[in-house]
Amino acid sequence: GGGAGAGAGGGSGGDGAAAGPSGLSAVESVFMRNMQRSLASYKEYLEGLQSAFEARRARVLAAYADAEEAIGGSHAARMRRLEGDGGSGPGEMPEAPPGMSRSSSEVERDSLLAAARTRRDDALGELQREYDSAVESLVSSYDAYLLAAAPDALLLPTSATIRLLDRGGATFSARVLPTHFVRDLVDMLETHARESGDPLVSVADDARWG
């Protein structure tokens, strides 16, 4: 190994010297941890909305099924009364009590079923609109939260290319925070050289950084 002169050029990316096992700096780790926590919180709330929506939807459908069954049962009972009235032979239309006939009972049944379907569809539509509005409000709230929590661009890390002038201009990229000092760049340089199998003995005091 030996001494080194170095130069650095800027770019865009993340920070480097203080990076932990995950490759993130302490600042990035805090940011990511809080973003993950907030995302988990909003996802949990969204899942709660979805569960409530599905439960209410199931109740609406169950109520319609009960109404449909009741209407069908009432019609069937009328048909049994009609079939038992008079002395008609098998397969013949029985006499109907005054004001009641097979066709009028079927018309009433169909009308009641149609009304029940309309109530069901109206209830489902209103439920869907409420759910969509709640989700839209949640998304808007989360978007506003992220905009407020986003770090200032001046605090974001950037990338730098460090060139070793006395080693044939060899370069390597490093991620640098605005809060890093020259000592941080030296640490990155020494770490890179060591990991490359050619450790540095020292870095000259007059090494140029710019």
TrEMBL record:
- Start-end of Gly residues biased regions: 1-17
> According to the UniProt record, where is the region Disordered?
1-22, 75-110
Q: Where is the composition biased (Low complexity)?
A: 91-101
Protein name per its UniProtKB record: Uncharacterized protein
